[in-house]
Specification:
Elements lengths: L5 H27 L4 H4 L7 H4 L2 H13 L21 H33 L4 H12 L12 H10 L7 H20 L8 H8 L2 H9 L4 H10 L3 H27 L1
Helix pairs in contact: 1-5, 1-8, 5-8, 5-9, 5-12, 7-8, 8-12, 9-10
Length: about 260
């Protein structure tokens, strides 16, 4: 069992690093496509301080947490100047996709890290817990399988303190948070990254009007997520993606052990 303070500390650390990776990916792809704006401002870095926003990264998630609402957080938006791009709409979309894509990459790396940690014995808490419980129940023999990322993900959602080690907690949190960041940011609503895909698909006559909706973006996101059922759609998509990831990791564990 992990210490009580470990969950909030690990959550904050993983969230800040994930947001930094997300924003740095935007900046790096923009630079590669010809826009040096973010690079000139030092945004191609994993330093969380460079990417933190006082409202989106601190005040908003703290308020939502205290209000017992789903936590939404974001980093400081990366400044993009599309006039540097050769194909503005397409390149703007590619810069946007870099953020969620980077989060999916981290989620996959956390999954692989979990599987490798189980195969090397760095993670093995479930066996000890199951055997210990069996002994207390007077059972002479018990067959305990390897730890399961799918089971740990369910434990994270229901009783986080039930996860056995800090390494397990960090890897499962890393996978879950990054899947959530990727899915949420692909919601096709300005100013989220998914809206850039819509902008790329729209005819030229409508692109300008669509991008101008960014000025109302935060309000629209809140209304859709909290009042129009968008939150249920996002949550369902997150749970679906996380299930596929964790089941895949458990299959990898079976091959490695």
């Amino acid at each position: 069992m992990i210490e009580q303070y470990a969950l909030p500390v690990t959550f904050i650390a993983v969230l800040l690093l994930s947001l930094s990776w997300h924003e740095a990916a935007h900046a790096w792809v923009a630079d590669k496509l010809g826009d040096p704006t973010a690079r000139s401002l030092g945004r191609i870095t994993l330093n969380p301080i460079k990417h933190m926003h006082p409202v989106l990264s601190v005040a908003l998630p703290a308020f939502l947490y205290l209000a017992n609402l789903p936590v939404i957080a974001g980093g400081k938006p990366v400044p993009i100047n599309p006039t540097f791009f050769k194909k503005r709409s397409r390149d703007f979309m590619l810069v946007a996709l870099a953020g969620p894509g980077s989060n999916l990459l981290i989620a996959l790396l956390c999954g692989v890290g979990y599987a490798v940690s189980v195969s090397t014995g760095w993670i093995g808490g479930h066996q000890e817990v199951v055997i210990g419980q069996a002994a207390r129940m007077g059972m002479d023999h018990v067959t305990a399988g390897p730890p399961s990322m799918f089971d740990d993900a369910r434990t994270l959602l229901s009783n986080p303190s039930g996860i056995d080690s800090l390494l397990q907690l960090a890897l499962v949190l890393g996978a879950a948070l990054n899947v959530a960041l990727a899915v949420f940011n692909m919601f096709p609503l300005p100013p989220l990254d998914g809206s850039r895909v819509v902008g790329w698909l729209l005819p030229n006559s409508l692109k300008g009007s669509w991008y101008r909706l960014d000025r109302f973006g935060i309000i629209m996101v809140f209304v859709v997520i909290f009042y129009l059922g968008g939150g249920r759609v996002v949550l369902g998509a997150v749970l679906w993606a996380l299930t596929w990831l964790t089941v895949g990791v458990d299959q990898l564990i079976a091959l490695l052990t």
